[in-house]
Amino acid sequence: MSAVIDNHHADHAHGPAKGPMRWILTTNHKDIGSMYLWFSFAMFLLGGTLAMVIRAELFQPGLQLVQPEFFNQMTTMHGLIMVFGAVMPAFVGLANWMVPLMIGAPDMALPRMNNFSFWLLPAAFGLLISTLFMEGGAPNFGWTFYAPLSTTYGPDSTTFFIFAIHLAGISSIMGAINIIATILNLRAPGMTLMKMPLFVWTWLITAFLLIAVMPVLAGVVTMMLMDIHFGTSFFNAAGGGDPVLFQHIFWFFGHPEVYIMILPAFGAVSMIIPAFSRKPLFGYTSMVYATGAIAFLSFSVWAHHMFTVGIPLTGELFFMYATMLIAVPTGVKVFNWATTMFRGSLTFEAPMLFAIAFVILFTIGGFSGLMLAIAPADFQYHDTYFVVAHFHYVLVPGAIFGIFASAYYWLPKWTGYMYDEVLAKTHFWMSFVGMNLAFFPMHFVGLAGMPRRIPDYNMMFANFNMVSSVGAFMFGATQLLFLFIVIKCVRGGKPAPAKPWDGAEGLEWTVPSPAPYHTFSTPPEVK
Amino acid sequence: MKTEGLSTASLVKRLLLLVVGMFAFGFLLVPIYDVMCQAFGINGKTAGSVWQGQEQVDMQREVRVQFVSSNAEGMRWSFGPEDNEIMLHPGEARTVNFLAHNPTDRVMVAQAIPSVAPSRAAAFFHKTECFCFTQQVLQPGESIEMPVRFVVDPALPNDVRRLTLAYTLFDVTERMAASLDLAAVHTN
Q: For residue B77, what are the domain limits?
């Protein structure tokens, strides 16, 4: 990968150093952004491969390919790799590349820390992935690693998992600190907070969420470590602890975490839809406040993940209504996107296709979320495929389509070439159809009672599961096409002008394509 | 790149402070959770052993109290209640015996963890004396009769007619290995 990108910058005046040391020692936000994006894509393919194993096993009822123990490792590692290895680093990569360009800063505020936060990730995931080859196998307790499944009954590799989470958490926290410092201190003169592009706004809020909850995650895995090795009893009932406590602490982290994975996508889509509607974003201010409201509310809804553990009725009512309240600011956003498109001169290039699919499909995921928020109904939905359908609808066409939309939108700026539009549209339609085939039937089997994380199922679910698997294979295979499109675009193609999208707004389009190694060494003037 | 706000160094310092604070808050959730459970009697945690209610027995009502026992993973004792259920009037103190037998050939220490269902009734269930307050040490092959004495608060909501007291017995021999020698002397 390095050789490919080297070509573009090698002849530039103040270009990067040559050879592999450029990537190891770099403090350049564009280099680090590219590394984050490539890393997250590699993790996306790996996590996707594990998903393919899951779907292959579930293609038919009965046990065909893998043993239940291995199946459990697949569901666990798929979740962990996708959440911490694919989605989060992809957004940090986008932030690294685009935030300084959008606010007219020469680089991130803390470039050396930036380098360190990236290089922690290969260490973290090297550690995590190595557990697959260990005696006793990889973590097998689900990505939510509920105690005592992960403490008393976890495999020996759990300790490696704990340290991997620690490293990934430190990386995220440092990344978040860097982004906040950049946004608050390095904006070009005249770039007031309320003039910032929405991607910058949503990342600022996301970064605060990260700082607030990643330490809590670090705390909960530390407690696990102490329970496993040092004889404490945080989650061990025999010693006076309580396993339900684990779920409270985990979801205190876990619920804001889901907004960490979606807010930057909200921001990117809020920039892409106006660009291809050739209209300014409808309701910029309300978008900012809605994002803030979602982030704020995300701290008061965690127990909706655990309605069935036996919390009191008043607690269930509180968490039910608080959860439903989040639909209000989210609804504001959806209406703003729809209103932005209304009577605009729309064109449907790949970024716009992904952005529109994002709005529609994310809304479906939001609605199934509202259904799950209804405490009495949740007693039936809990731990079924309905939940799996719900969170894949918000994460795949939500977070991941947001990332694809951003990648196509800014690829010309990154590489200096236009991507192949026909292939990109093929990628979109294959992803769109594949993803819906894979996840829509899960609503039905879930409502009918198919439990999640089980390698076998009742005969009556066979047809829907076969459809799901076919859709998943299609979605998975299509991502290799995406890899091809990106490599093709990096290597050449139609040269991209500084501003390849005529409706696009923002400072990033004022620099040439590809963006020079150093940009905005003198800050631009923002009117 | 000077801005009117904080310098980058002091901004980063404050953010790091926030990180440390949130890490500590994660641990603070542990006592907060215990206090909340105690205060609201939720999660099946029973009320304290101090029972200061009037000695008035509500003869109008009868409540069924059931006893359930189970062994945690790896626990080899036989363990169970003498009676599976009793009927009582709220306010009336009753004693029920649980029987435990250590069939293994080693000295073992056990800890019983109680839980009351439905959880909203847990706050009205007072154990004045319970084998779960201490740990049990049994010699190889030894059996023991363990009493639990309890009162159901007359303030128990009227629609609760049945309570279940469940015990899970955990093997804590390894955890208690250090003090085992001393404890073994005091048995019998």
A: 63-186
Rounded Cα distance, A249 and A344, in Å: 46
Calculate the CA A437 to chain-centre distance: 21
Q: Which residues in chain B have their CB less than 8 angstroms from residue A176's CB? A: 15
Q: Are strands B162-171 and B93-101 parallel, antiparallel or unpaired?
A: unpaired
B143 has which bridge partners? Answer: B101
Residue A527 has pLDDT above 80, yes or no: no
Kindly report, residue by residue over B72-99, the tens digit of the pLDDT.
878 889 999 988 999 988 888 889 999 9
Pick from A151, A376, A111, A343: nearest CA to A247 = A151
**A2-510: CATH class:** mainly alpha
- Give pLDDT, residue A6: 47
pLDDT of B1 higher than 50:
no
Residue B188 has pLDDT above 80, yes or no: no
Q: B92 and B30: one domain?
A: no
Selected for mutation to probe chain A from B30, B73, B173 (highest A CB count within 10 Å) is B30
Per-residue confidence (pLDDT) for residue B179, from 0 to 100: 62
Q: Do A109 and B23 touch (CB under 8 A)?
A: no
CA–CA separation, A510 and A506 (whole Å): 8
Domain CATH number, residue B111: 2.60.370.10
* A452 tagged catalytic: yes
Nearest CA in chain B to A207: B15
Question: B161 in helix, strand or coil?
Answer: coil
Which pLDDT value is given to residue B53?
A: 60
CB contact under 8 A, B170 and A181: no
The CB-side HSE value for A290 (13 A sphere, CA atoms) comes to 22
Among A173, A212, A234, the residue with its CB nearest the CB of B30 is: A234
Alpha carbon distance A477, A5 (integer Å): 25
- How far apart (Å, rounded) are the C-alpha atoms in residues A361 and A367? 10
Q: What is the pLDDT of residue B36?
A: 83
pLDDT of residue B159: 87
Which residues partner with B148 through β-bridges?
B96, B130
Backbone angles phi, psi at A493, to 5 degrees: 135, -165
Do B104 and B180 reside in the same domain of the chain? yes
Chain A residues with beta carbon closer than 8 angstroms to that of B72: 237-238
φ/ψ (deg, to 5) at B138: -120, 135
Whether A333 is catalytic: yes
Per-residue confidence (pLDDT) for residue A409, from 0 to 100:
97
Q: Which residues in chain A have Cβ-Cβ distances shorter than 8 Å to B30?
A: 223, 234, 245, 249
Mean pLDDT of A326-340: 96
Do the strands B162-171 and B63-71 form a parallel or antiparallel pair, or are they unpaired? parallel
Which residues of chain A make contact with B5, given a CB cutoff of 8 A? 184-185
Is residue A427 annotated as a catalytic residue, yes or no? Answer: no
Q: What is the mean pLDDT of residues A472-489?
A: 97
- H-helix or E-strand spanning residue B21: helix B8-40
Of B1, B7, B172, nearest to A186 by CB-CB distance is B1
Q: Count up the domains in chain B and report the number.
A: 2
Say if residue A7's pLDDT is above 60: no
Give me the mean pLDDT over the A483-493 stretch.
95
pLDDT in tens, A135-173: 999 999 999 999 889 998 899 999 999 999 999 999 999
Report the residue from B16, B22, B113 with minimal CB separation from A238. B113
